[in-house]
Amino acid sequence: METPPRVLTVAGSDSGGGAGIQADLKTMLALGTHGMSVLTAVTAQNSLGVQGAWELPAEAVRAQFRSVVDDIGVQAVKTGMLSSAALVTTVAELLAGLTAPVVVDPVGISKHGDALLAASALDAVRTKLLPTATVATPNLDEVAQLTGVRVTTADGMRRAADAVLAFGPRWALIKGGHLPADAAGTAVDLLTDGVEEHWLRAPRHDNRHTHGTGCTLASALAARLAQGDTVPQAAAAAKEYVSGAIAAGFRLGAGIGPVDHGWRLRTR
Question: Of these residues, 176, 213, 249, 257, which one is catalytic?
Answer without folding.
Answer: 213
